[in-house]
Design a protein that fits this description.
Blueprint (H helix, E strand, L loop, with lengths): L6 E7 L1 H4 L19 H9 L3 E7 L18 H12 L4 E5 L13 H6 L1 H10 L9 E6 L16 H5 L2 H12 L2 E4 L16 H19 L1
Parallel strand pairs: 1-2, 1-3, 3-4, 4-5
Helix pairs in contact: 2-8, 3-5
Amino acid sequence: MTPASLRTLLCFGDSNTHGTQPMRSRDDARRLGRSERWPGVLQTALGPDWHVIEDGLPGRTIGRDDPVEGADRNALRTLPASLQAHRPLDVVVFLLGTNDLKARFGASAEQIAEGAHALIDTVLENTRPGAARVRVLLVCPPPIEEHGVLADMFSGGAAKARGLATAMRAVAAQRGVAFLDAGEHIAVSTEEGIHLDAAAHTRLGVVIADAVRALAG
């Protein structure tokens, strides 16, 4: 595989891209291994023709400064640097929206999904003139559940999460980007309702690989 023919994919997400394991306490920092996390599974599934880059930040929102965890959790503040650091890119996969369901933001499913417009715009704005079009895959996270150590933080989020896929699908259709509803394939951990277990990461990586192949040709 020559460098010129190697295709590059950026996985840009939150703790469910970082590989945070279902949390047993608020300070539980356990993380799945590189090959267990869905970007690692994706790399294996796509093979040596692809270079998969993992950029997962716990607490990351689509476009909201977090008054508790910090403004750097806002994807729109860090996405431009990530795009420029890893260019040229062929595909960007977004898996965001879970943290926007936190009670402190008071955002509806439609308001959360609308933030994806700015993610797509940021990709376009950071594509050099004359460069090949960067393809975008917008992945809606699976619906959350309100139990476990994070239940109070996400109070009211489970009901809103059930409408998120429909709202995100509409944005993807409007913008002409690919869409995947992760909730059709996986579910959050029954242990704490927000994060994915290893089996879900494996399934998600395989499903995203299929979507990337269809998108990239």
